[in-house]
Each structure stands twice: as C-alpha cells, then as structure tokens.
Design goal:
Radius of gyration: 41 Å
Shape: elongated
Number of helices: 26
Number of strands: 23
Number of domains: 4
Structural class: alpha+beta
C-alpha cells in the first residue's frame, strides 16, 4: 500500500471519528439548549406571573398603598430616633393650630353659624333714631308700635320689653330676668316650646288670668325638669301665674339671662306717646328686601309725625333704622373678632414657617442619603412623595394636639363678660370647628411640608456624594430657603407685635381714665321689694332702714342706695325744659339717677359747686336737683348752674339746681360722659315727672376690709329684716369696672399672647438658622481663623447676618402693618392706628430679640478652635 493511500485511509478514519464526536457534541448541545430554553421559558412564565401580579397591584392601587405604608413606617422610625425634634415641631404646630381653632370657634359662633331661630336671616329689629343727639336705638311707644305693625313688609311683627320679677313660694326668693312680648313674639322667632305651649290669643286680653312661659334653665334648676309643671301655679311679684310652657335650651331671646316670658297687652286705642319702652322685632316677607322695608317704615314714621304734630313738631331729625338680627346681636364685636382671626392666622404662619425651617435642617442633614437614593434610580417624584409623606404626620399630630389645646382654652377661658353668644348657640368645638382644624392641618402640611420636600428632591448627586461638599461660609445655597423663611417670620411677628402694641396702648389709656368715683373696697347688691307687700310710701323708709342696719356692721364705713350703678349697661333718661328759654328745635335729654343723700360720699364723687343732698331734701317734697359737669357745660356753658331751674314736663314743678358734681363714667370708661341729673329718693318722684321703678334699688357699701368678707353679714342683716327679700347681682365695684373694659382688655391680652409666642418662635428660627450655618461651616471658619481672621470679624459676620434678616423682615412687616392697622381703628381708645411710638418701639424690640438670638451662634463661631475644626473635617 502506497504512502498516499495510507494517508487517505487515515484521513477518512479521522473524518469519521470527528464526525461522530461532532455529532455527539451537537446532540449534547441541542439537549443543553432545550434545557436552557425550558429554563428560560420557566423564568419567562414566572416573570409573566410576576408582571401580572404587579399589573394587578397597580390596577387595584395596592402598590401605592404599600409604598405609602412603608414611607409612614419610615417616618415613625425617624421620629422615634429623634423624639425631641418631632415633639418640638408638633408643639409649635399645636400652639398655632390650637389658637386658630379657638378663635375660629368664636368667629363661627358670632359670624358664620346660622342662628338657632328659623328664618333668622329675615328677622330684623326696628329702632327709632334721633341723629342730632346721637341716639340711634330709641325704643318705640305703644302708638308707634301699633302703626308699625301694619307694615306690609313683615310677615310677623312684635314688640317686647324686659325687666325682672321675683319668684316666691318655692324655696328662697329668686329674682328672675323677665320679658313681656306681644301676641306674635314667639311666632316671629319661630321656635316651638319644649313642653306645653306658648300664649294663646285670648291670654293677651285685659283681665285674663296671668300666664307664663319658663326658660329651660329655670325649669331645670328651680323645678327639677318636671314636665308636670305645665298647668301649675307660681308666684311672681306676689301674683299667681299659671305655667303654660317651657322653651328649649337654645332659646334665650332677647338676652342670655332671660328666665321667664309673660304676655304684653297693648290697647288698640293707646295714645301714650311719651313712654318709649318697646323694642320691636319683625320677620320680613321672603320677597321683601331690607331696603324696601326701610322705605315703607320711613313712610309710616312720616305719617305718625304728621298725625301727632304737637309731640313730634319740636324734634327735627327723628328717623328709624332696621338692623338684621345677627348684626344686632354681634354689635361692635365683628371687627374685634376679625382682627383676632387675622392675628392668630399670622401666628399660625409663623409656627408653620418655623417648622418648615426645622424640616429643612433635617432634610439637609439627610442630603447624602437622598442623593444616594437618586443615584440608585429613585425618581424625583418618588423622593418628593416620600419626604412629603414623612412630614404630614407631624402636621396631623400637631393638629390633634391643637384640638386638645383649643378644647381646654374654650373650657378654661370664660367669655361671659365679653361675648354674648348663648343665644347664638354658644362657643363649642362642633363639627365645623373640627373640620376647620382638619383642613388647616392638611393645608399647612401640604403647603409648608412641600418646601423641604421640593428642596430634598432637587439633591445634586455629584456634589452630595463628595466627601466634603463645602461651600464658602455664609454662602451655602442650602441655607437660603431657611433664611427666607426667617425673614418672613420676622415680618409676621412685627405685624402681630404692632397690633398688640396698639391694643396695649389703648388698654393703658383706658385704665388711666378718671372714672369720677373710687371703686376700691365697694360691694354692691341689687334689692327688689315686692309690690304686694310694700306700698310706694313704705319703700323709701325701708331702704333708709337698710342703710342704717348695714352701717352698724363691723367693717362697714358707709352705705347708700341708687337706682342704677355706673357701668351697669342700664340707664334711664328724661327730657327737660330750662327756665327762661324758649322751646328749641330739638329735645334736651339727660340720664336720670335716683340716689340716697350719702351716695356721692360712698362712691367718692367730688363736689364741684354748691352742695350735696341732705335729709331735709328727702323729707320735703322734691324741689332740688344735682347735675354733672357735662350737663352744666351743655346747658349753661358760661354761667354758674347753681340756682338755675329746670323741669321734666310742662305740668311739673320747677326744680332748683343745688350742686354740680364731677363727671362719672356711667356708660363705660371708653364712652363720653353724658349729661346727668340726680334726684333724692322719695315717694313723691312721680309728681315731678320721673317714672322710675322705686321698688328695685342697688345697695352700695364701702368697707374698711375686703368687700367679699362682709357679704354674708349683709345678707344676714337683710334676711332678718325681710326673709322673702330677693338679693341678686352681688359684685364689687372693681368687678363692674373690670367687666366694662373687657372689650379692650381681652383683645389686648390675646394679641399680646400671640405676639409673645410669635416673637419666641422668630427668635428660635433665627437661632436655628445661624446655629446650623455655624455647624456646617466649621471647616471654613477654622481655615479663616488659621489664616489670621480675628474673632471680632467672625462675630460681626454672623451678627451681621441676623441684623440683615431683622432689617429686611422689619421693613416688610412695617409696610404690611401700615396697610392693616386701619382695620383696628374701632378697637382703639385714645390711640392712633399709626401711633409713631408703637411703630418705633416694635421694630426696636424685635431687632434686639433677633440680635440676642444671633449672639449665641456667633459667639460659638468666634470661639471655634481651628485645629479641632480642621481635624473634624
């Protein structure tokens, strides 16, 4: 076999062997590929199932809920690691939200919530007016009521009056606030009785059996909520009256303290024009506007003046007004409540900006963590949602604490001497206030929580992951937002401080007003003699015995009686003629006071001219009168009034002026003194034209000890004189004076508290920003000190930052305050809304506080050890 054949045979064998090996390898490869394909198919099938599950979770919202729950748990873990941080934020928010909820509850009761009377939006009160004398709420006479009630603008129309009656026969005598209403009184208010019924038409007829409707309060407290009281008889001023019904708890019209209602009968032929004692209230028809009703009532008044020319001819300027019921109830409190709401709103903004600043600081400490998440693929939206959700629990927790704080404030702080809100449903934390708190918490959380969330979502990955990441001291971009928040805190604080400063200035002026009397160590109590047991002649004698008995008690210096106390919000007045002067085109009107001879001495009122009353003036027929300085200035501006004569009506005797006394602030410290006439308390006052109630008088006792210490002794002495004598309204003269100034004092105190908290939060904000800047700039400060920077330069640098913030924030705050204080004009007393002393002192105080808050971080920076600072880096 040749060499070539051998080579050919070997090649064929090798090819066959290679083919077998390749075939085997290919088969193995195919088997492996099948295995891989199976594995891949399995993985793909599993992936499809997972994808289906993910799609299902996305479709039904499970994945977002899981992420939300993860973020909430993470936030709670963060707060658990730093509980002081979370507690600080929630306390700041609770102060703002709690105060806001409290003031909102008051505003809701006064201005927003529907009154507890059906169709209350159409109920108005009707008043006569006399503009030349500034008298804008004059009650109507009976003939005027009869004419007004014929108006076609009203679906229902009623008149009512108020007073007091004494309940006897069931326990101790009890003086009740009473209201007498005409036939449609309860129909105008639209309130059904809780038990029984209201008055029937025949019960308004003269000679009908006396009937009464009880308030819920007196039914509960005196009669134990007994439903069988209907049809039972009670004694009112010694008269038997049958109880026909009980009104529900929310019905207190026309005042919070009314206890009982009785029918008021007016004869259709009444011509008693001179007795203006009726308050008028009506329900407008649905299609009648207030302006149209005013026009018709003005026409009726014009008809009345033409019908009685003798009575109205000398009083040019008489008019009338229709006032919506809510406006009548709120009175002049509306601007006060709105100002307080604005003030507490600024306080809430300050608290929220402070919390936002703290959250920014926490976010800046976590910037590397957030940057790492971004580097690993987290989207900006995911980071924004996470940080925002982490912040929301703080705001919701602050809101929950704020609700508790508001509840405590409304329970602990009495508004009885300032806000007349019982007949509006009272002030309470109802669903409206809770809804307001929830909205406020969520809104502030979303608004102020989004600031650190947006800041965190803008993290620069490359800068954040650098080891140092240092900027030059004071130029860190991460502190700019916090500095801006501090500037706004300062501005808001200046606005609040300005309002508080104006109110404090008004209160100081008010407290320094010369009252004309000395309220210290004087106790007062109201007495009322039952007419069934005391005649008109017996009443003055009884009150003289009361004074003598009380004077004999240890600790009593003197005692007197008066029909109406100063600042009691109740006054009587009468018109008068001046001897030797022709009738004028208007009416001379002055307040009237019935007093015992010792009244001026007990009250500490000084005599300007003439003399006081003596016992002879009381025992003789009334022939003398004492006037105040305002009366003398008005009637005899350039002559001595002593010896001049006046009379109260044309058929009454002339009265000689025997003295002039100093002006007394009878209507309040912030109200101008009106002309007043003082008459001695005798049983012949009707003869000179005074229709005063001689049965009810106020006992005024000046003591040498604390007044409340002898109240029980005075009560005992009076009980021995008459066991059935009702004694009520026991209070010191200091309490009465304090109550009269509450409309200025309470807003001043509230605004001062708000301003103090705002000032504290602003100081904390300034301190926090500078302290953070110093902490983040330790390396740079160390380098500067190592290169020769003096400590004074470092100190001035950081103090300069605080000064710049104070200057910028103060400028913004002053501009805002100048535009807002005009809304406070009606609340101020003898203080201009643009008082330069306030606008100078407030920025000065705020600047000092800001600089003091800046001082500690600045000192810390100036004392920085360069070696320690450089090593720490």
């Amino acid at each position: 076999m040749s060499w070539w054949q051998i080579r050919k045979r070997d090649a064929d064998l090798d090819r066959e062997l290679r083919s077998d090996l390749e075939l085997e390898e290919e088969e193995q490869r195919e088997r492996g590929m099948q295995t891989e394909e199976a594995r891949y198919a399995a993985r793909r099938a599993f992936g499809n199932v997972t994808l289906i599950k993910e799609q299902t979770r996305e479709t039904w919202g499970w994945a977002p809920l899981e992420r939300l729950w993860q973020d909430v748990r993470y936030a709670l873990r963060q707060f658990a690691r730093k509980p002081r941080f979370a507690l600080t934020c929630m306390i700041a928010l609770a102060l703002g939200i709690g105060a806001t909820t409290t003031i909102y509850s008051i505003m809701d009761a006064l201005l927003l919530r529907p009154l507890p009377y059906p169709n209350s939006s159409r109920i108005v009160q009707v008043w006569n007016t006399f503009a030349p004398r500034g008298m804008m709420q004059i009650p109507a006479s009976e003939p005027e009521f009869l004419e007004y009630s014929q108006s076609r603008s009203f679906a229902r129309f009623a008149g009512f009056s108020t007073g007091a009656v004494t309940l006897t026969g069931t326990g101790d005598p009890l003086r009740l606030a009473a209201s007498w209403g005409t036939q449609q009184f309860f129909q105008v208010m639209g309130t059904e009785p809780l038990v029984g019924r209201v008055f029937a038409a025949d019960e308004f007829q003269p000679g009908h059996t006396q009937v009464a409707v009880l308030s819920y309060r007196i039914w509960q407290n005196r009669f134990g909520s007994n439903p069988q009281i209907v049809g039972k008889s009670i004694l009112l001023d010694g008269r038997t009256s049958t109880v026909v019904g009980v009104m529900p708890a929310g019905f207190t019209f026309p005042s919070d303290d009314v206890d009982i209602w009785e029918p008021l009968s007016i004869a259709p032929s009444s011509t008693n024009l001179g007795n203006h004692y009726l308050s008028l209230v009506g329900e407008l028809r649905p299609q009648i506007s207030l302006s149209k009703a005013r026009s018709e009532m003005a026409m009726i008044l014009d008809r009345i003046t033409r019908q009685y020319p003798t009575y109205y001819g000398g009083a040019a300027g008489i008019g009338m007004s229709l006032v919506p019921l809510r406006q009548e109830m709120v009175g002049n409190l509306r601007p006060t409540v709105l100002v307080l709401m604005a003030g507490v709103g600024f306080m809430l903004l300050i608290a929220c900006t402070n919390v936002a600043s703290l959250l920014l600081a926490r976010g800046e400490d976590r910037h590397q963590e957030i940057a790492s998440r971004v580097a690993l693929g987290a989207s900006r939206t995911r980071i924004l949602n996470q940080v925002l959700i982490e912040n929301l629990p703080l705001f919701l927790g602050g809101g929950a604490l704020g609700v508790g704080l508001a509840f405590a404030c409304l329970k602990l702080v009495s508004t009885g001497d300032y806000l007349d809100v019982a007949q509006m449903g009272g002030v309470n934390l109802d669903w409206r206030a809770l809804a307001f708190t929830a909205v406020a918490s969520l809104a502030t959380g979303l608004l102020f929580g989004s600031i650190p969330a947006l800041k965190a979502s803008q993290a620069n990955v490359s800068d954040a992951l650098k080891s140092g990441g240092r900027d030059a001291v004071g130029t860190r971009h991460r502190t700019r937002t916090r500095a801006l928040l501090v500037v706004f805190e300062i501005a808001f604080s200046l606005i609040l401080l300005t309002g508080a400063g104006l109110m404090i200035g008004s209160l100081a002026k008010l407290l320094n007003v010369n009252l004309g009397f000395d309220p210290e160590n004087v106790v007062t109590m109201r007495l009322s003699l039952p007419r069934t047991r005391y005649t008109l002649r017996q009443m003055p004698s009884f009150y003289r015995q009361v004074q003598n008995r009380v004077r004999s008690l240890p600790g009593v210096q003197d005692a007197a009686t008066v029909n109406q106390l100063p600042m009691s919000q109740v006054a009587a007045n009468a018109s008068f003629e001046v001897e030797g002067r022709p009738s004028k085109t208007d009416i001379n009107v002055a307040d009237t006071q019935i007093i015992s001879p010792d009244y001026f001495h007990v009250m500490g009122v000084s005599l300007v001219r003439g003399r006081f009353f003596t016992d002879e003036d009381v025992n003789l027929p009334p022939a003398s009168v004492i006037v105040n300085q305002a009366f003398a200035r008005k009637v005899w501006p350039r002559t001595d009034p002593v010896g001049k004569r006046i009379r109260l009506r044309s058929d009454a005797p002339w009265l000689s002026v025997i003295g002039t006394v100093a002006d007394i602030k009878n209507h309040g410290s912030n109200v101008d003194t009106t002309p007043e006439m003082y008459f001695p308390y005798t049983d012949q006052l009707w003869g000179i034209g005074i229709g005063a109630d001689l049965a009810s008088m106020t006992l005024v006792v000046r003591t040498a000890v604390e007044p409340q210490q002898i109240v029980s002794a005075i009560r005992g002495q009076l009980k021995r004189m008459d066991p059935e004598l009702p004694i009520f309204r026991v209070e010191t003269l200091d309490q009465i004076v304090s109550s009269s100034s509450s409309q200025t004092r309470i807003p001043a105190v509230i605004l001062s508290i708000f301003a103090g908290i705002a000032l504290f939060l602003s100081a904390i904000g300034v301190y926090g920003v500078l302290a953070y800047t110093v902490a983040q700039s330790r390396h740079e400060i160390g380098v500067r000190i190592a290169l020769g920077a003096r400590k004074g330069q470092i100190l001035r640098f950081f103090l300069g930052q605080g000064a710049r913030w104070a200057a910028i924030g103060g400028f913004i705050g002053i501009i805002a305050a100048l535009s807002l204080v005009r809304f406070m004009k009606s609340m101020l007393f003898q203080v201009s809304a643009y008082d330069p002393s306030v606008f100078f002192a407030v920025p000065l105080v705020l600047s000092v506080v800001v600089l003091l808050a800046s001082l500690l971080p600045a000192l810390r920076a100036a004392r920085e050890d360069p070696l320690a600072a450089l090593k720490s880096e």
